[in-house]
Specification:
Chains A, B, C, D, E, F: Residues 5-208, 268-302 form the Carbohydrate kinase PfkB domain. The structure is a homohexamer of 335-residue chains. Chain A is an alpha/beta fold and 335 residues long. Chain A contains 12 helices and 15 strands. In chain A, helix 10 (275-288) runs antiparallel to helix 11 (293-307). The longest helix of chain A has 16 residues, at 142-157. The radius of gyration of chain A is 19 Å and the shape is globular.
């Protein structure tokens, strides 16, 4: 299966050694974004991977493009226009000090300004077998929302699989009217989708879907009603647990007939940003290769745990690494 | 004399060791801008210096503010609102390879979005004796142009000195209508001004002022007609000369009655960005301390030559350094 | 309340990535010291903050001054004379390997050589409402001890609040006679003080104050006798606990009538140097704003826990950060 | 025209800031080689570019591959086997201090060990229109020589263009018998070639071709006799001149009927390694697009001059940059 | 006692901050190897230490030599010939992500190519009192195996002590015949040895020695039979334990009459490579100074635990550091 | 000939990339000093080299010692006591901006505090054949002056050669009385000396020796009178020339009967600090190997020119490098 993603490429700037912005004159530079993370990771799994996005038509766009290529992503459908790339600064936390993300102008980025007519959507959809769309495209601005929905619709109509990641950030969508618009956009895209990444809160708060969480079985029934309603094949996500003095992570994956939840694994986290995308990449690998739910979610969670230990957003993991973690979890040195 | 400036603070990101963006994952981070460069340099000369500007209300704004303070700039009139700082990347050139500047979104920066009502203009003008305004404020967008003109007008009315730097970049002003608007804005601000930084081209192309350059004396007469028209006290600028295989720099300064031009000095340049602001800072120091034109322009050009040898935009030069260069130009080691 | 501190500024040099001095040719440079840490932190809390100190009259002094300004410290009372700054190297430990601090000449630093007549003590005391004095000034040499006592006395006489930090390092005071001198100096300064940072050991070993630690209530009575004797309002400190394989920290604060001790918090420590000063800054914030003892010590300890997670000595924490830690202790990512 | 190259990928390790190996614990890492440099540069000119090579089947091979992709090179014909990559250390010189290159084991590299049967030579040749072969392949060892000759022969037979770069290093070929073998190998490959990069010394010393250099016209006649003999279309090279205290570079290009030599340009050199490959890339661009000899050699030399100003071997130049240098040679800042 | 080692010097290249090779252009460079680690550590303990090895006769060899000297190793018996140094890349792991070691060509290194006649074996053995030989020399190739056995034999015959470290890596010895050859070589060297570092698996798998591990006493009896057979004085090693979510380490040391095993210490590991050599260095210190088994193994394990917290392979620990860990294990800051 | 030096080891801290102290948080660390530079360079020439000095008895002293060893210096006579190492910061200049050296406390360094009884002077002198003494020892303080004179006297009495470098810095010796004391100390040491490094100004200003510079022959006569007076064998030095826009360097060497002066070589200087010591090392090599004056001074000046192109003070040049510069001055790349 050839897999493509539609999503923004961002520039990430990170002070070294967990320093604060005031403490250093040096930054580490990387190119990232949900789509990049996902198809970059899939390319490392050996999947032929494509990205549909817009980069600036300047030296930053050139550098971003070189970086996408180095990840093994096919960049045939990446366009270059306008002059701005969405940027964020990540001051890495430590212990009780949280990581601080500071976003710079995204709405006026090349991706934010790109119109539906700028992209070769039909060709892109023709090329790939499955497309991943990030929910942030729905909330960034009207242009990106329009493209996202068009990509989903076109793919669905051509019999291609569609995967959608809720990725809903309430903080970015605080105007009351915005919330209504967002719900409509999400409702518009869901009928085209085969695989969904989301959470109880996404369904209940954003979509106002009735979720009964009084018991585990009630919760599963609520989820499966949602799946039936939109004819969704797979629904997956991760849960973070904070007990005592440790952080843990588990994953779940459900189909209309099955519910699989992993055990909770303790995290020793170097950089958790992008680790959710690693989970998604694992699930899509299983989906595209017809793995069982069980195998898929275990692989995906192992991949996500490894992604927590890699600097930066893009999960540079391979199948071999994930398989080794699952089969020999205590190895700490490969010679 | 207390000197203030109105201008944008930008984030500058520079790859180390003249590397290209594709060749490194590391950037050097600094905060800069014509106003910062000017009052930062004046603070190093011992002048009480103020900046009127708008920074983001986030961690980047905090870091920028810390940086302004470290330069010795009084930041009482710096406001923090919105979320974006104008940014540029400087890939440093070498030999025949030019330095490449790539700007990221400036129009939607905190500075670009700040309204006239956001600033404490009256208090700022009351505090200072001379204000410097950068021409880029006139071309950035309507908000910044409105503030720039208001600052100049208020200062003029209160008997404070006004200094204006043409800083006109044709590349940023290419729409035909834009050019007409710009000319009107420049014509509106000039009557308030005492000191101007500019060039023949600025007067002839932007203002369509009739400049006769058929002879040196004709050129001087044209300039002095301009000074008379707008009742300007000092007009200054630098000229770059490229002869054979070397780059040279000279400076000029004229009053309604005098014309001084320095000899041409060969440049051994490490980073020329900001060197024009160093010249301006030198001229303003002479102006504020009632130096002769001759002393002022020699000091200013020496300061600018030193600024070519300092990494980054902000000229961190001191009076002692400039004086040593002028009196002992061959010293290359101070123990 | 305006808060000032009298104390030494030191240059700190740290190898990157927990390397040893033999393993690297690169050092990270920062400017630090109890006074810097304290008023730098208070400036981040929005308090108008001053430092009374002496820096070298050379490029290192210039660089130190720029750094103090960037922290938001008002440097009006910082003098520059002589040529030397006290320096220390911090080889960061890891796990069972302790951090190694190597001091370079402090007695002959600009601070150590500055005389009482070099400082504008009267103006400084006039400007501020509360002054913090570090006990190291009493042990560094006669000059610094004389200034420290004069500052405390002048402040006390003018009705300003005085805060004193024992900061007694037995290793620096090993000659028998030195110990007697130190006791006399401490006894001389205590009557001027309102707030004290110290420990049981400081009182019993240095001052030879009779401390009954046979029970918690006996210990509190001993402390309160000490407070009564010197008419001290607040006495505070932290305690480190090592149980099993974890390090924990608690804080205490007592007034003549109250005793508050926090619970023990587990530390995940990146750099503990300066974390004691963060506790002091928190206490002084509470004191200067008339908070309850309870609120003050919880805030101070939260601040100190955050300081353990920040590279370098100076706690760059804000009220918002500390409040978030106290109210939402498990958040590890702010977007 | 699609252009491919057969050649070794090497790891280059460079101390920063012109430091010696004993002076630093840090190295800059890059992947390079004549073939990489050439097709990497052509990819930046917009040419569809391929590399035929062998990389280690380990993490270093993975990293090298990611790097080739980032240059825009199509890596379909890159194989991964064995465990070693040829490596060199470049201690950058300065002024009178020469750059020192230290090679590590190349003969046993994955490239050196790869057999003719490991490569998909037929498919590779089928895909491309012109292939570039580096002379080092002929001297590295028997395996690489066999592959190089097979690639040239196959391409010639299929009517594809063949370009060969003498790249003969006497220092690597000092055994007497080795010299005879080398001459035979060079004689074997030349009949398949359309474009040659070489020098007078290559022809006279290596091939023992009779070169009459008593006059410019005699030299040209000797060259053209060589071209006739092997039915070569273009022959090109550069000449370094050291006069007084400056270094200069000129280029030449001849066909059976024409001889073009550029003027001498003064070099301001940051890193000359790879600049010869930049010249070759420029010539091949002209050849593949049917430019005149004059335009081709001027473009190629401009490209090579720019390559002298870029850190590392790979010339990351674009057509736009070269065109700007040729048309506006004094521009030193692009905003 | 003067202690010498025979073993390979390798170049280690490590990306900073636990980055992967694809994520950085910067590497940290160090020189290492079992022999270097061991005698480098012993030199830090104040022991006169020698290394018998072969380095390249080029700039890398020069840099390696400077590095050995800086460790305090006497380099009189280090020869320089050939052009290649064995190299490995260490991508540091984190949490569940294992450290990845990638070796580059070792068989053709200067050490691998050095012949028995290249070394001054007799003089070397004459100079020292105890020699350490690393088992890797037996498996690298015939040349190094021949030298290793000759060194052991010569030392034994001259009444010098011989220490041998099994250091057997099955992964490097996978051909069936290779295994037989290896067993013979190990059997050939053992009769010359006084001190052995190894494990149950080394004895049972490599030597096919009958090891009864059904009970602790049976295991000890098996070991002691081995010691009797080869007249070995001391046999030592460490054991890694993975329980729950922590890693632990214990050490053992046995003589023909005693068996000492330490408790299990939890590891907080920064870089475990070389920590086994630190254990060996501690044992040899005890052996050479006639310490009790108990004191020796406790010191050795403390040394190894510290080595886990030091970047790089070479344990730069001192006696003072180890003694402090054993006597005051909770100190985390030395001022 | 075995050569030793008596002199201070200093810590040098240098911001990267010609940045100013305010512009970076990173410093490059090295250990240096006239004695280190000289014997470090001689060790690279293959001379057995010793240093007599005092380092701190702490981690900085340990690191300095490791660094001396890495240069190949025999450190048997280096003592460790006290806690402070003399330090200087070098802000590297560029073009017209001079390099700025900022010294930190030297008088109270371990070297400054070491007494004559701390050193094993007799053993040191016994070991070596020639000793080099730096004039700074005479001006640092009484302790170091006493040791310097004692070393010279002891060596002279034992028939060892003594070399003395005036190294007189008027700026460090400005008190009138100091000047008289200095003259006496210089006069005291000169009778013991065989080789002197100095200048016309040293003789005329410091020693008030009558120098007739009205003509070249008069100047030579004045010098030779000085040599006769003190029975000095060789007197050498360099002269800097600044003509037009270039810097040049020449060297001279005279014996009682000969005067040799080199031509002026243009400098392309990366770091001139330590280049005078490189000249001295070259002269001493020639002296110790009985070269002609001509060969000695040409080698020494070539060595000094190379030292100008090496970062840091210590000239890491080899005979091979110097010989190549003298015989093939235009080679800029060694493969």
């Amino acid at each position: 299966m050839k897999i493509g993603a539609f999503g923004e490429v961002m520039l990430r700037l990170t002070p070294p050694e967990a320093l604060l912005l005031e403490q250093t004159h040096t930054l580490r530079m990387a190119y990232t974004g949900t789509g990049v993370n996902l198809v970059g990771n899939l390319a490392h799994f050996g999947v032929e991977s494509y990205l549909l996005t817009a980069l600036p038509d300047n030296r930053l766009g050139d550098a971003a493009l070189a970086n996408l290529k180095s990840l093994g992503i096919n960049t045939r459908y990446v366009i270059q226009k306008e002059q701005h790339i969405g940027t964020y600064f990540a001051e890495m936390g430590y212990g009780v000090r949280p990581t601080e993300i500071t976003y710079q102008n995204r709405k006026n980025s090349s991706f934010g300004l790109a119109m539906i007519t700028d992209y070769a959507i039909a060709d892109f959809v023709e090329t790939i077998d499955l497309v991943h769309i990030c929910g942030i495209s729905l909330s960034l601005n009207e242009h990106s929302a329009e493209v996202a929905i068009a990509v989903a619709k076109t793919a669905h109509e051509q019999g291609k699989k569609v995967c959608f990641d809720f990725n809903f950030r309430p903080s970015l969508n605080q105007e009351p009217d915005k919330k209504r618009v967002m719900k409509e956009r999400y409702q518009e895209i869901l009928p085209y989708c085969n695989v969904i990444f989301g959470s109880v809160r996404d369904l209940s708060e954003l979509l106002e879907w009735s979720m009964d969480v009084s018991s585990q079985s009630a919760k599963i029934r609520s989820f499966q009603a949602f799946l039936s309603h939109y004819q969704i094949e797979w629904f997956a996500g991760t849960t973070r647990h904070t007990t005592d003095e440790k952080k843990q992570l588990s994953g779940y994956l459900l189909s209309p007939t099955e519910w699989i939840e992993t055990e909770r694994y303790t995290l020793d986290s170097l950089d958790r940003i992008g680790a959710g995308d690693a989970f998604a990449a694992g699930i899509l690998l299983g989906y595209s290769e017809n793995w069982s739910l069980d195998r898929s979610v275990e692989f995906a969670l192992g991949n996500s745990r490894l992604a927590h230990t890699i600097q930066g957003d893009v999960p540079l993991t391979t199948r071999k690494q994930v398989d080794q973690l699952l089969s020999h979890p205590t190895i700490d040195l490969n010679r």
